[in-house]
Amino acid sequence: MNVFGWWRNRRAKKLMASMSAQEKVEVRAMIVFHLSLAAPVHMMTTSQVSATEHADVFEAVGRRQGVSVGRLSAEDSSEDRSVAGQARIVVGPLSEFLTDFTREDDRENSVRDKFAVVEGEPISAALPMLAQYREIRVT
Q1: What is the pTM of this model?
Q2: In angstroms, how far is the first alpha carbon of the chain from the final one?
Q3: Is residue 35 part of a domain?
Q4: Strand residue runs (E) in 64-127
């Protein structure tokens, strides 16, 4: 059984850079969906392009599994951000999570009960925010 639909994605009009890139996204998706059973998850990516690729996969799987997935991007209004933040899994660039974290009044409680999954090495500016999370996974 192919949970993540690699074959469907491979024949899609827009392909990811390579099969290995697709496989990395799928491995992250397995980690994120497993963690989301215990608590909400913030999936932080290195760029908006990567966030879009991850969110596309996560949303497809989330629909089948009944798990809500939200997206963060720089163009979002505060209302869009609020709606995305209510999802069980929130996907976006690390910079957007940092932006939200610095705006919030109750910063520690906003992330304390959530898992963080970070694509690549987090930037040093993110370390104080990441230290507040329940658990951090760097993939």
Answers
A1: 0.82
A2: 24
A3: yes
A4: 69-71, 89-93, 115-118
